[in-house]
Amino acid sequence: MEAKRDIIFDKLAYSCVFEKHRGNEEFIPEHFLGFQLSGETHAFHADGNTVIPENTAVLVRKNQLIRTIKYPAKSGKYQFLSITLDKETLQQYALENKIVVDKKYVGKQKLFFEPDDFLQNYFISLAPYINKKKEATPRLADLKIREAIELLLECNPDFKQILFDFSEPYKMDLEEFMNLNYMFNVSVASFAKLTGRSLSGFKRDFTRTFDTTPKKWLLARRLDEAHYLIKHKQQKPTNFYLDLGFENLSHFYYAFKQKFGTTTTEI
């Protein structure tokens, strides 16, 4: 069953599913505030795995790659609300409230937390929009987004170091980044942006670092990991091919035979 995802208003999205659902890789271009209404979200990212349980809020930082698995609650339903906190809205809010950030956030990746009563009641107040009993005008939608920012900062003032840091992404160590993120099946353009480079700059630096093109390196790196999992961990390709960034099994089997000259069952 496909996951249901409704855009309630401009920056508010509602996700609902009734059985376990594996999401696609996602490039997160903007911060977002999420709330787990029911069920659990298991999120995989470069720093590890994060489990978001029911009635938990999460602040997801922009410019990262995430893969999720959605698990319905015992009642049989998974529900998740996400509110995009885009750069333009945050810059306007910072200007109006004279917010200046003079240091970067140095906390851990896991930014999920138990919301206070005010923030929890805020998400409950969105129910009429989810149930389509009420429609948000552009002005009301803008006010609801601003309310979310206010309540988020009340809940944890340190979050302002994340939300209002408008500095441009710096160039990341390419070798380290790619070895942490090679399994995400996203475009080369997304990898370029995440490492703080233009597409042409990324390709140039990549060739200088790895002596090959991004696509060739990604395929070889994924196949090497697959070979290790099959030979040393006795895992079956059906259990991991998606996690390594392959879109389908037939492509994986063909590429594996091309690289190693043998099938997976012959190892």
From TrEMBL:
Coiled coil: none annotated. Residues 172-267 form the HTH araC/xylS-type domain. Keywords: DNA-binding, Transcription, Transcription regulation. Pfam families: ExsA_N, HTH_18. It comes from the Bacteria. InterPro entries: AraC_XylS_family_regulators, ExsA-like_N, Homeodomain-like_sf, HTH_AraC. This is Helix-turn-helix transcriptional regulator.
